[in-house]
Amino acid sequence: MKYMALIYVDPANMSQPDSPEFGKMMTGYQMANETYHRDGVWVAGDALLPTSTATTVRVRNGKTESMDGPFAETKEQLGGYYIFDCASLDDAIRYAAMIPGAASGAVEIRPIMVFDR
User: Fold this and answer.
1) Judging by beta carbons within 10 Å of its beta carbon (0-12, 13-18, 19+), is residue 7 exposed, middle or buried?
2) I need a surface site. Which of 11, 12, 37, 108 has the fewest CB within 10 A?
3) Buried (b) or exposed (e) across 73-89, using 16+ Cβ within 10 A?
4) Hey, how many other C-beta atoms are within 10 angstroms of the C-beta on 107?
5) CATH at 73
């Protein structure tokens, strides 16, 4: 089954790119990525640009509306994601716990719905 791990972070607590903490965090991501590839669970994963770059789209009464920014104001914001192909939720939880963002933010795991095509 495929699972999406949504990484939520508080931008106020994020390390600056030129800091030692940032380097340590990136090393953690590199180690996690190597494990995902080695174990064959990697499907996809990327970081997202800040919510200040987001555009929210709605269609109302047949008219497309777009506005800058995220839909909701929240303390923690979606900062990136992974998609894992795991045998069980327990495996997905184990891999999600390796994501450095889980230590200071949260990682939400959701099974990906498969539609018959």
Assistant:
1) buried
2) 12
3) eeebbbbbbbbbbbeee
4) 23
5) 3.30.70.1060
Report phi then psi at 103, rounded to 5.
-75, -25
pLDDT tens by residue, 66-84: 888 765 556 788 999 999 9
Give the C-alpha separation, 32 to 95, whole Å: 8
In a domain, 99, yes or no: yes
117 in a domain, yes or no? no
Residue type present at position 106: A
8-state DSSP, 112: P
Stretch 42-65: mean pLDDT, rounded?
91
Domain that holds residue 94: 2-111
Query: pTM to 2 decimals?
Result: 0.87
The single-letter DSSP state of residue 65 is E
Residue 37, classified by CB atoms within 10 Å of its CB into exposed (0-12), middle (13-18) or buried (19+), is exposed
Question: How many domains does the chain fold into?
Answer: 1
Residue 116 lies in a domain: no
* Both tokens assigned to 66: 């777009």
